[in-house]
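Design a sequence for this backbone.
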């Protein structure tokens, strides 16, 4: 890998480019490329489809072959012998935060005695499709983005069409019509990972267009474009997301049977505490989550809502952040959420964040959080 980059120092190469030239799988090329970047022996750019380029250390890296098992990122100086296989239990594991394409950090969690990102990469290399399911805001999309830097995403809903997956004709600047390929075709031809987010909101008839790409055929026919046959390149991989509690989400047998591995994703409340989110609010979320599990409630704050709470508190103060937490709860669960917040925080009353009376024109502006704070019990 390093030798290929070093031989083309002026070029930026995608994973697909390098896989085709080297004749290796996209998964292997992806892992090798990211390892070079981590060691500072190559540079990476691009947020959608990553590109890799040689730097001052690439030529030296190309002089010695280093073969590491999945998940092993040992500094080059510590590697004395090349290894092709290592028992999973003995494999050093990377558990530190991973920076996603958008710059956000993802904190890996354990899955089958492996970091979740590593487990997903092993499933991809074995071509085992994965369905992730759980409430919105638990980190399903974040996990997939952290695991697969070459990811393409389709945000599913009831209006998603076959054209949104495969492509359709659009009007060109010159007035004619050209066929624009969709993300499914792009992922297939470039050997990239494809996330079908909220897949169970998409019509089963639309999803049927995806299935030939996932089975033994690994190809689709683009009927709208002269019946063109598209074949999947090595590395093409499909992951789907499912939110069971969302209205209209239906996991059909046809969809479920296409995903050999199905993984439940819940909120990591210990991570929320590690991120220094108010411990009382995390305790409220845990309590409400248990009620959801028992069928007594339909909603509990997930990591997404807890992170939003933390940001709102920093800007508007604790009282406003608590009021907003109550206000974003579904109407049927709002009273229960308010009661839980009142008991945990010790305030007498909490209501959704609401505009009050119009301020007099001469009223002096007060800084956010200038009222008594329920968080610290004193004026802020």
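Sequence:
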């Amino acid at each position: 890998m390093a030798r290929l980059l070093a031989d083309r120092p002026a070029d930026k190469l995608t994973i697909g480019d390098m896989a085709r030239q080297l004749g290796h799988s996209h998964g292997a090329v992806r892992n090798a490329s990211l390892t070079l970047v981590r060691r500072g022996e190559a540079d990476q750019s691009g947020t959608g489809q990553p590109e890799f380029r040689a730097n001052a250390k690439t030529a030296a890296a190309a002089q010695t072959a280093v073969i590491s098992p999945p998940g092993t990122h040992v500094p080059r100086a510590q590697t004395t012998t090349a290894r092709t296989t290592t028992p999973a239990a003995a494999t050093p594991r990377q558990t530190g935060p991973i920076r996603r394409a958008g710059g956000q950090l993802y904190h890996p969690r354990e899955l089958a005695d492996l970091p979740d990102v590593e487990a997903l990469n092993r499933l991809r290399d074995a071509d085992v499709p994965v369905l992730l399911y759980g409430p919105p805001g638990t980190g399903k999309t974040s996990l997939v983005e952290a695991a697969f830097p070459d990811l393409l995403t389709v945000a599913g809903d009831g209006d998603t069409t076959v054209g949104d997956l495969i492509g359709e004709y659009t009007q060109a600047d010159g007035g004619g019509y050209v066929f624009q390929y969709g993300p499914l075709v792009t992922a297939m031809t470039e050997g990239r990972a494809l996330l079908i987010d909220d897949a169970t909101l998409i019509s089963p008839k639309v999803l049927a267009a995806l299935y030939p790409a996932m089975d033994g055929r690994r190809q689709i026919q683009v009927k709208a474009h002269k019946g063109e046959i598209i074949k999947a390149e090595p590395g093409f991989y499909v992951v789907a997301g499912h939110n069971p509690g969302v209205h209209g989400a239906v996991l059909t047998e046809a969809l479920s049977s296409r995903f050999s591995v199905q993984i439940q994703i819940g909120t990591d409340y210990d991570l929320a505490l590690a991120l220094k989110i108010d411990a009382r609010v995390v305790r409220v979320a845990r309590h409400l989550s248990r009620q959801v599990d028992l069928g007594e409630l339909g909603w509990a704050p997930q990591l997404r809502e807890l992170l939003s709470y933390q940001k709102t508190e920093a800007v508007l103060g604790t009282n406003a952040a608590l009021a907003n937490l109550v206000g974003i709860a579904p109407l049927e669960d709002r009273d229960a959420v308010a009661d839980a917040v009142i008991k945990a925080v010790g305030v007498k009353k909490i209501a959704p964040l609401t505009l009050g009376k119009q301020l007099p024109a001469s009223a002096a502006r007060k800084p956010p959080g200038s009222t008594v704070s329920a968080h610290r019990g004193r004026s802020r």
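The chain is about 35% helix and 15% strand.
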